[in-house]
Structures are given as structure tokens and as C-alpha cells.
Amino acid sequence: MAQRFGGKFSPDKVDGTSVKGAPSLRPRIDPVGARANLMFAPAAIVLFTSLASGAAGLALGAASAAVLALSAWLLRHGLRAEAAYAERKVARRPGIPRKLFSSVLAGAGIALASLSGDGGLIAAVLYGAVTTGLHVMSFGLDPMRDKGMEGIDTFQQDRARQTVDKAEALLAQMADAIRRAGDRRAEARVEQFQSTVRDMLHTIEDDPRDLTSARRFTGVYLMGARDATIKFADIYARSGDDAARSKYMSLLDDLEVNFAAKTQKLLQDDQGDLEIEISVLRDRLEREGVALPQTSSPIQEDR
I need a labelling partner for 245 at 20 to 30 A (CA). Which of 117, 126, 160, 261 fits? Predict the structure, then answer.
């Protein structure tokens, strides 16, 4: 993965010290690796080798190539869905088992390729079954169970998911707009702001009850940041106005402080709710005659 060079004369340094806009970002790695990308190769090979197989062979070869290409495409999306599932503490299983469908289609594609080479039906079925099994062994199956959904309101979870998707769309628009400015420091500053916003989005995904209190941040404030980024990019691309960049950086600083403070408050509210539930449970057990040691809660001790 490429890394931005940093040094004494880097744009992210001033007099040998880091400027406020230099971000400390968590790397976002695409879960689709070389193995998944290589799965497009069989489709091209089958299509190329079937060109001299006559009309019937060419038709079967083209169908096989199309099925294998679809299998590789589904595999890529299945790996991304699995990575998103693993990243979240609370997640539903993917609605479409893309990796499973990819395995089945890979077997079907190889079976068609065998038939295009004048192979028998039994041989084609065997080739397809072996390919499906090897595909499953190589890439695994999709997550088949929801994670962390016990006691979660599914309606609230759906609303939180929609809000996060809209917020991610606004962040993507910000990233596209700032590239037009052609300023690396501004791009780095936007990346840092996006990282702070995503911390809040992850908090909302983990506890959808936080959605109501955070809606203003994920909606109005984020739309304002997107609009300001578009205007700044247009102005700076034309004039290179340093004053405009300074004002824009200051705006991102203020917004980032507010987003970080709100995220911290959401986490504290969650801890407060847990303390209340523990206190209520303790009182109920004592009324039932269960003697409990009078010790502070782990959350209080951490504080």
C-alpha cells in the first residue's frame, strides 16, 4: 500500500514540525486481494481457447467465460461484505450470500468449459463439483449469522444503517471535491476529518439508540462541511488563495472538535446507561434477599 512521504520539506511539515492538518489515520485496506482478482483469468483463458472450437464450442466457451466472470465479480463483493461484517461489533449477515453463489457459479463455469471441449456430461459434473469445493476451501463461506443483534431494535438498526450510508456518501463527495483544489495539505486535512466522523459513525452503528442525538451532526453539519469543501475547492483551484485555505482549515478544525466531543459524549452516555442498569439490578437482587458486596462498578473504577 502506498504511503505519503514525509520529511523536512514535506508539505505536511512546517519548520520541521508537524502542522495541525497532518493526520494520523487508520489505513483502509481493500479486502479484495490478488487471489480474488486472479479469478477473472479463467474466464479470459476459456474464451480465448474456445475461439477455434467451432460454433457450438464457441457458444459454450462464451457462456462459460460469462459465468466465470460473474463468479469473480460476486467474489469481490462478497469479500468486501465479509470485511464490513467483521469490522462492526453489531452487524447483520449479508442479505445475499455472494461468496456461496460465486462458488456455485465457478463450478458451473468450469462444467460448461469442459463441455465446450467435447468432455462428457459426467466429467463436466465432476469438474464442476471439484471446482466448487476448492473455491469454498479457498475463500470460505459468507457469514451466516447476525452478530451482536441480541436486544437490538431492528427498526432502529435499519435507520442507523441508512444514516451511516448517507453520511458516507457525503464524505465521498467531500473527498471528490477537495481533489479539484489540487492541494495536498487540504486533502490530508479532509482525510483526518473523515476519520473523526467515521469514529462517530461506528459508535452509532454499535448502539443505534445514539442516532437521535447525533442526527444533527450526521446531517446538517456534514452537509455544511460538504458544501464548504465544494466552494473552497472551486475558489482555490481558480485563485490559489491562501486566505481561503486558512479559513477552510479553521472550519474543519472547529467541526472536528465538535464531532470528537459528541462522539465522546455518546460513549459516556452509554456508560451511564450501563451504570443505571447495574444499579437497578443490584437493588432488585437485594429486595429478593440476595446479599451483594458493596463494591464500586468496574466503570467507576476505570474513571
Answer: 261
Are the C-beta atoms of residues 11 and 5 closer than 8 Å to each other?
Answer: no
Name the helix (H) or strand (E) containing 18: strand 17-18
The x, y and z cell numbers of residue 220, run together, are 446538517
Question: Rounded to 5 degrees, what are φ and ψ at 12?
Answer: -90, 10
pLDDT digits (tens, 9 = 90+) for 166-199: 888 898 989 998 888 888 888 899 999 998 888 8
End-to-end CA distance of the chain: 39
Q: Return the residue matching grid coordinates 446538517.
A: 220
- For CA atoms 255, 258, 264, 269, give the dihedral sign: negative
What is the tens place of the pLDDT at every residue in 32-67? 778 888 899 999 999 888 887 778 888 888 999 999
Opening angle at CA 132, ends 129 and 138, nearest 5: 140
DSSP letter assigned to residue 208:
G
**Count of other CB atoms within 10 angstroms of residue 102:** 28
3-class secondary structure, 15: coil
Whose CA is closest to 112, among 166, 67, 163, 69?
A: 67
Q: What whole-number distance in Å separates Cα of residue 218 and Cα of residue 132? A: 43
φ, ψ for residue 294 (rounded to 5)? -85, 85
Q: Which amino acid is at 176?
A: D
Q: Taking a C-beta distance cutoff of 8 angstroms, is the pair 160, 213 a contact?
A: no
Specify whether the backbone of 54 is left (phi greater than 0), alpha (psi in -120 to 50) or beta.
Answer: left
